[in-house]
Write a structure and sequence with these properties.
single chain, mainly alpha, Tetracycline Repressor, domain 2, elongated
Length: 194
C-alpha cells in the first residue's frame, strides 16, 4: 500500500473539517491537530489557509465528479432513471442522515465566495462543470424522447442544480430531508414527468 504524502493527508483532513464546519470555523490549529502534523509542514505545502481551502475544494469536487460520472454515465439504465438515481444518491450522502449533511460547495459559496476572489472563481467553475454533467444526461433524455424536443438541456440542468442547492440549504436550516423530497417530487414527478 502506498503511503499518502503529507500534502494529500492534509487535504483529506481539510475536506472533512471544512465540509463539516465551513471555512471560517476551521482554524489552522484544528487542521494541524487532526492531521497530526506541525505548522511548518502545513506552510511547506500551502502559502495560506485560502490556498489550502482551494486544494480541499478541488479534492471535494473531484470526488463528486467521479460519483456523478459513475451514475450519470451508466448506460444500462435510461437517462431519466440515471438522473433520478443520481439525486437520490445525493440525498443519501448529503441529506440529514448522511455522514456530513450539506454540500461543501454550497457552504463555501455562502461563507467565503464574496470575500475570496480565488475561491469564488473555483466555485463558479465547479458549478458550471457540474451543470454540464447534468445537461449531458438531459440531452440524452431528449434524444431518447424521455423529455420534449424543445427542452433546453443547459437551462434545465441549471434550474435543477440551483433548486437542489436551495433545497439542501433549507434542509440544513430545518434539520429535515423534507425540502429534498419536495425537490425530487416536483423535479421528477411534475416538471420532467415523461
Amino acid at each position: 500500500m502506498v503511503e499518502k504524502s503529507t500534502r494529500d493527508h492534509l487535504i483529506d483532513v481539510g475536506v472533512g473539517l471544512m465540509h463539516r464546519h465551513g471555512y471560517n470555523a476551521t482554524g489552522l490549529k484544528e487542521i494541524l491537530e487532526a492531521a497530526g502534523v506541525p505548522k511548518g509542514s502545513f506552510y511547506h505545502h500551502f502559502a495560506s489557509k485560502e490556498e489550502f481551502a482551494v486544494a480541499t475544494l478541488n479534492r471535494y469536487v473531484c470526488q463528486e465528479a467521479e460519483h456523478a460520472e459513475t451514475v450519470l454515465n451508466d448506460s444500462s439504465i435510461s437517462p431519466m432513471k440515471r438522473l433520478k438515481r443520481y439525486f437520490t444518491d445525493l440525498i443519501r450522502i448529503y441529506g440529514q442522515k448522511g455522514p456530513i449533511p450539506g454540500c461543501m460547495m454550497g457552504r463555501f459559496s455562502f461563507e467565503i465566495a464574496a470575500e475570496s476572489d480565488l475561491l469564488r472563481k473555483h466555485l463558479s467553475t465547479s458549478f458550471r462543470e457540474w451543470q454540464s454533467a447534468i445537461a449531458s444526461v438531459i440531452h440524452l433524455a431528449v434524444e431518447q424522447k424521455e423529455l420534449p424536443p424543445e427542452t433546453d438541456a443547459q437551462a434545465l440542468s441549471g434550474f435543477l442544480l440551483n433548486s437542489w442547492q436551495g433545497a439542501l440549504v433549507r434542509s440544513q436550516a430545518e434539520k429535515s430531508d423534507a425540502p429534498l423530497k419536495t425537490f425530487m417530487h416536483y423535479s421528477f414527478e411534475v416538471l420532467m414527468k415523461g
